[in-house]
Amino acid sequence: MADSVPDAPADQLLTAFLKVHARGDVPGAVLYARGEALHRRLASTPPDSADWGRFLVALGELAAEGLQDDRAASRWFLAALESVRQHGDSEVGTTAGYDQGVLHERRGNPQRAAAAYHA
In total, how many domains does the chain have? Predict the structure, then answer.
């Protein structure tokens, strides 16, 4: 995946991104930048697939772990939670809620963490 997003169907682009993310062989900051470009490309008409939600979770994980940017991570996790209404994949919601809870724990806010874990 180059810095510009290739001309391909959304499902293929998301699958490719998620495979690269799972392998973990691309530096987080690089993959995050590519993910942001892909998000800009697809956000106006997001796919109705669980891979869209998984993609949003992956961006949150990259922001939190690769960039140490908890604010950006939180935005991606919340977007992933909201995406469940579109695609209905509860695993995306569970993962995003858990990851959001971890962020709240890091900030020293156990009440918000508990609420996020139950999202």
Answer: 1
